[in-house]
Amino acid sequence: MRILVQEVKKAEVWIDGKVFSSINRGFCLFVGFTHGDDQKIIEKMADKVSKLRIFPDENGKTNLSLFDVGGEILSVSQFTLYGSVKEGNRPSFVESLRPDEARTLFALWNNILSSKVPSLKTGVFQADMDIHLINEGPFTLLLDSKELVK
Fold it and tell me: Which of 18, 26, 65, 115 would bridge with 71, disulfide CB 3.0–4.6 Å?
């Protein structure tokens, strides 16, 4: 499982020219799944995301979490996080989980994460989405379960 975390001032999912989901300050998460991902991995990754302390405190130090700042999360499925250009110039997605399996895990992910964070909004799995976001601060992090879950 991979999650690209972006600290945002605002983020929106647009589908068919209309806003589907919108958040203010918080995280925009792009979430991808690979072979072998399961509930145990999802639980550990949700715990990690919910406890990230990347918001600045009164001294400018990254000490505050979503709870501390009343932040929200926008969670969007993103199979391309497992795209590889190791060979050639056209991405290969053999490491990306098949859509039927990834859909189930994405729903599980959002269910588990929603119990750990103040506010969660989502995109729509496999929809043609336009993501509008305003980055805030220096933070874009890539979390990889192969590094974080032992």
Answer: 26
Successive 10-residue mean pLDDT values, the chain, 150 residues: 97 97 98 97 97 94 94 96 93 95 98 96 96 88 91
Catalytically annotated residues: 78-80
Q: Which of 145, 6, 147 is nearest to 75 (CA)?
A: 6
pTM score: 0.94
Q: What CA–CA distances, in Å, run from 60 to 16, 56, 64, 119, 137?
A: 40, 5, 10, 24, 11
Amino acid at 101: E
Distance between CA atoms of residues 93 and 132, nearest Å: 25
- Helix axis angle for 99-114 and 39-51, nearest 10°, is 40
Helix (H, G, I), strand (E, B) or coil at 128: coil
